[in-house]
Write a structure and sequence with these properties.
There is one protein chain. This protein has about 220 residues and is α/β, with parallel strands linked by helices. Helices cover about 35% and strands about 15% of the residues. The protein contains 6 helices and 8 strands, in the order αβαββββαβαβαβα. It has helices at about 10-25, 45-55, 95-120, 145-155, 170-175, 205-215, and strands at about 35-40, 60, 65-70, 80, 85-90, 130-135, 160-165, 180-185. The strands form 2 sheets. It has a 5-stranded parallel beta sheet with strand order 2-1-6-7-8, sandwiched between helices. Strand 1 (about 35-40), helix 2 (about 45-55) and strand 2 form a beta-alpha-beta unit. Helix 1 runs parallel beside helix 2 (about 45-55). The longest helix has 22 residues, at about 95-120. The N and C termini lie far apart (about 35 Å). The relative contact order is 0.21.
């Protein structure tokens, strides 16, 4: 943990983020743009996104994205895929087609399975011509949020904002390239991991993530 954490927990970070987003919407006179939709990257993004959706009075849903990794090195991201099959590869993708197919299929099944856990609690809303606020608890490399943006972009929203409490300063230029607006509360130069900037950063269980959706959408 960072000696002086920036946030108490994900809910606190979401409350801080919500105020900044609301102020930006008002400043840009976009608050009435077909009412924004808040999408979280589960599971950790949901406790952050819930205060944002509550502050704006709008639906809360999820975009499920999983890293594509090798079984022997699950920490090294070779790409990412969403539950609906949108794929992004890094420069480190395997050269063999059979290897690519195998690890992509494994990640895609994981994403589909997680989506099925949340689908019942996500409102059936159309994305086209809406402002989408994509929220996570932080950005490390940016790969999963980038593939999530690609999946959402294919449904032709009016704009996509990426909104996170914390991200490393050096990834900001590349992240800005694939969204319409980037909101980051803190950009430490020495990063290492998202968790070190939270006082409490437990794993978010599926049941807790579902409760976030139920509270906002019921």
């Amino acid at each position: 943990m960072f000696p002086n954490p920036l946030f108490r927990d994900r809910t606190h970070a979401g409350e801080e983020l919500a105020e900044v987003i609301a102020a930006d919407l008002e400043k840009l006179q976009m608050a009435s743009l077909a009412s924004p939709l808040v999408y979280a990257l589960p599971r950790g993004g949901l406790p952050v996104a819930e205060p944002v959706a509550r502050r704006l009075g709008c639906p809360l849903s999820v975009v499920v994205a999983k890293k594509i990794t090798l079984p022997e090195n699950p920490e090294l991201a070779l790409g990412a895929v969403t539950s609906d099959g949108y794929v992004l590869w890094s420069d480190r993708r395997p050269g063999s087609f059979s290897d690519q197919h195998s690890i992509l299929r494994h990640a895609h099944i994981k994403a589909q399975n997680q989506w099925q856990q949340f689908a019942t609690y996500c409102p059936p809303v159309a994305i086209a011509d809406r402002l989408i606020l994509l929220v996570d608890d932080g950005i490390a490399t940016g790969m999963t949020v980038e593939v999530a943006v690609g999946a959402v972009r294919s449904q032709k929203p009016a704009a996509i904002w990426i909104c996170v409490p914390v991200a490393p300063f050096e990834v900001l230029p590349s992240v800005r390239e694939y969204c319409d607006r980037l909101i980051v509360l803190e950009t430490p130069h020495i990063f290492l991991s998202v968790s070190r900037f939270y006082e409490e950063f437990p794993q978010v269980e599926t049941s807790e993530a579902i409760e976030c959706l139920k509270r906002q959408n019921n």
